[in-house]
Design goal:
Strand content: under 5%
Number of strands: 0
Shape: flat
Structural class: mainly alpha
Distance between the termini: 39 Å
Largest sheet: none
Radius of gyration: 12 Å
Helix content: over 70%
Oligomer: single chain
Length: 69
């Protein structure tokens, strides 16, 4: 398994773990981290629709984090 595979699996695992959170703040922080990892992963693979989706999701998480804090 290459480091790129590990990055993709780690991002996906963190995304799933973030969805399991009961606390909204923790969910947003973990989800933001997962989105940023997946932006890098998908950009390296040149999967631009997934890059765009994760950039938008990261922006949404930042918006709600700003409101929460």
């Amino acid at each position: 398994m290459s480091w790129l595979d590990v990055l993709g699996w780690a991002g996906s695992a963190l995304l799933i773990y973030s969805i399991m959170q009961a606390r909204v703040l923790r969910f947003r922080v973990l989800n933001l981290a997962a989105c940023l990892i997946l932006v890098v992963f998908n950009a390296l693979l040149e999967i631009w629709p997934m890059v765009a989706m994760n950039v938008v999701l990261a922006a949404i998480n930042l918006w709600f984090l700003r409101k929460l804090l």
